[in-house]
Design brief:
- The complex is a heterodimer.
- By secondary structure, chain A is mainly α.
- Chain A folds into 2 domains: about 55 residues; about 230 residues, MetI-like fold, CATH 1.10.3720.10.
- Helix content of chain A is about 75%, strand content about 0%.
- Chain A is built from 14 helices and 2 strands; from the N terminus they run αββααααααααααααα.
- Chain A has a two-stranded antiparallel ribbon.
- Chain A is globular.
- By secondary structure, chain B is mainly α.
- Chain B has 2 domains: about 70 residues, no CATH class; about 170 residues, Orthogonal Bundle (MetI-like fold), CATH 1.10.3720.
- Chain B contains 16 helices and no strands.
- The radius of gyration of chain B is 25 Å and the shape is globular.
- The chains are: A mainly alpha, B mainly alpha.
- At the A-B interface, helix 1, helix 4, helix 5, helix 6 and helix 7 of A face helix 2, helix 5, helix 6, helix 7 and helix 11 of B.
Chain lengths: ~300, ~290
């Protein structure tokens, strides 16, 4: 009798626990089910390559004879190679020119467009136009514009300036690429700034004007602080994008002349798909990841420290 | 007066009375006009160049407008590339990319935003931390990974990875967070399944974001030329950008008037697409700008 009672109570307790379990299961079932596809693709196509990249960087990848563990050889060889110095220098120069020629343009254009009373819609469309058409069409356009006998040199000759070998002179090649990319990309960034500028309350300007602040002081003390958070964000985004730039280089100069436009990322592509040295390419990728992560961490720190960011 | 207040931006109508401001404003207008010309010139150059004869394209100094319209360039250009097939390839790629890039992140965003999930923070971190990892750094292992999965030379190598898009989850989730939770609670009490809640309520309510992401996916698919040329090994499968790059842009035996004709042809579809969806695109840019 006692035993029976005891067994009954265990059954009851078991049933209760099972009920709780199945209730948790039922509560979470659909929520988890909706996440499973995302977990699968993120795991398979993002995290697997990321982890594999780190693993591969310690191996000599050989599809025929099998992979062989080589320790840090990929890293030491990559750092010792002569291409490394060239690629790092080219990439830094490319990033620097990108900031010098391209970073300030979108915000200035955005402020100017925001002041247009008419045709503002058309101007927005025009600056965004290069973002709409395929990049390969733009590459072809720039090849033609940069042709030694092309329109740009013709324009220069009107001012009595001799022709420039835009893409075939090693001192001009990076400049030419940055110019083309700035032309191509500033519109989208300008529209982001424009959205920020439009969002600034108009009564701030009204108040400043009543207090006697001129137009330029209003820009300096109201507009620019109003879009300050965008400056830092877009600066980080530009750094991350340009530090990995290689497609325009592939298309316009092929890394030349004399390796003048061989960027870091281009070096990775060369190691992997020309020299089939996948281990070294992975090691280069890991190093770049470390540097970029440190860079953005430092920049976010700076943002955190600065007031009203 | 009230109209002037409504129309003011940084400057008010009153500022215009000052001479220095007017001069600066005039300079700004001229600069913007010059900018517009600079932006439009290459497009005109491509269009007009595509209508020039072979002799005229080699004239120095180069002319801008063609003397005679040489429509034959288009017929000639289309002989070098199978644009119809490449166009259909691109559409097929886009359809799959759009399907996976919207459905998978859409379901995940709905789950994280409106449903009961264990370890929500860890799951969010699992997705969002991929945003911090620059895609180029794992370009090579990504290629090797697709190779070992046997997906090279197949569109699945684009479609399935398109679903692994943390940016899309971010945008969709932040939009769905704004939908009142009680709406879904009420539907659940009325017996609606979670799938019904998603497809019949969350999806229609988030239509602005979904349409924006459709546009972003279109631009990305239409523009991408390097990655498809790595992953696909036969030109019959190339999307339009890759094919035009390898068969037209880098072709040495083609004259520029013929090249321009093909380039003009591939610029038209995205332009039409843009003009149709202009409002949504501008809205999308604002959206992504605010969210970063």
């Amino acid at each position: 009798m006692v035993a029976r009672l005891a067994s009954q109570s265990t059954v009851a307790r078991k049933g209760e626990a099972g009920g709780r379990l199945s209730r948790t299961f039922r509560d979470y079932f659909w929520g988890v089910a909706f996440l499973i596809p995302a977990f699968a693709v993120f795991g398979l196509f993002l995290w697997t390559p990321i982890v594999k990249g780190i693993v591969y960087s310690f191996y000599n990848i050989d599809f025929v004879n099998g992979n062989r563990f080589v320790g840090l050889t990929n890293y030491t060889e990559a750092l010792a190679s002569s291409d490394m110095g060239i690629a790092v220098r080219n990439t830094l120069y490319y990033m620097f020119l990108g900031v010098l020629m391209g970073f300030w343009v979108p915000s200035v254009v955005a402020i100017a467009i925001s002041e247009l009373r008419r045709f503002q819609g058309i101007m927005r469309l025009v600056v965004y136009l290069p973002n709409i058409v395929p990049a390969v069409a733009l590459y072809a356009m720039w090849m033609w514009l940069y042709d030694p006998l092309g329109p740009l040199n013709q324009l220069l000759s009107w001012f009595g300036i001799g022709g420039v070998d835009w893409l075939t002179n090693k001192h001009w090649a990076t400049f030419s690429i940055v110019l083309a990319e700035t032309w191509q990309g500033f519109g989208a960034t300008a529209l982001i700034y424009l959205a920020g500028i439009v969002g600034i309350p108009k009564d701030l300007y009204e108040a400043a004007e009543t207090d006697g602040a001129g137009v330029f002081r209003r820009i300096r003390h109201i507009t620019l602080p109003g879009i300050r958070h965008l400056y830092l964000l877009l600066f980080i985004m530009q750094m991350i994008a340009t530090s990995q730039g290689f497609q325009t280089q592939v298309a316009l100069t092929g890394g030349g002349p004399n390796n003048a436009t061989l960027t870091y990322m281009y070096q990775i592509i060369n190691q992997a798909f020309t020299l089939l040295n996948y281990g070294r390419a992975s090691a280069l990728g890991v190093m770049m990841f470390v540097v970029l992560t440190l860079l953005s961490a430092v920049l976010y720190r700076l943002q955190g420290r600065s007031p009203q960011a | 007066m009230s109209k002037a207040i409504r129309e003011r931006s940084i400057m008010s109508s009153f500022d215009m009375n000052k001479k220095s401001v007017m001069v600066a404003y005039g300079i700004m207008l001229v600069a913007l006009l010059a900018l517009a010309v600079t932006l439009l010139y290459p497009f005109g150059m491509t269009l007009f160049g595509s209508l020039k004869s072979k002799q005229e394209i080699f004239v120095f100094p180069p002319t801008y407008f063609p003397r005679h319209l040489e429509w034959g360039n288009y017929a000639l250009g289309f002989k070098y590339v199978n644009l119809t097939r490449a166009f259909l390839n691109t559409l097929l790629l886009y359809a799959g990319n759009a399907f996976f890039a919207l459905l998978i992140p859409g379901l995940a965003a709905f789950s994280l935003s409106q449903m009961k999930v264990p370890w929500r923070k860890t799951a969010t971190l699992f997705f969002m931390s991929t945003l911090l990892i620059p895609s180029a750094t794992y370009l090579i292992p990504n290629f090797l990974n697709l190779q070992s999965l046997g997906m090279l030379n197949s569109y699945w190598a684009f479609w399935l990875p398109a679903g692994a898009n943390a940016f899309n989850i971010l945008l969709l989730k932040s939009f769905m967070d704004g939908i009142n939770k009680e709406l879904f609670e009420a539907a659940r009490i009325d017996g609606a399944s979670e799938l019904r809640c998603f497809f019949r309520m969350a999806l229609p309510l988030s239509l602005p974001v979904f349409s924006t992401l459709l546009i972003f996916t279109f631009t990305a698919t239409w523009n991408d030329w390097y990655w498809p040329s790595l992953v696909l090994s036969v030109k019959e499968k190339y999307p339009i950008s890759s094919l035009v790059y390898y068969d037209i842009v880098t072709a040495t035996m083609l004259t520029w008037n013929v090249k321009f004709s093909v380039l003009t042809a591939i610029m038209v579809p995205p332009l039409v697409f843009f003009i149709i969806f202009q409002k949504n695109i501008m809205h999308g840019l604002n959206l992504s700008g605010v969210k970063g």
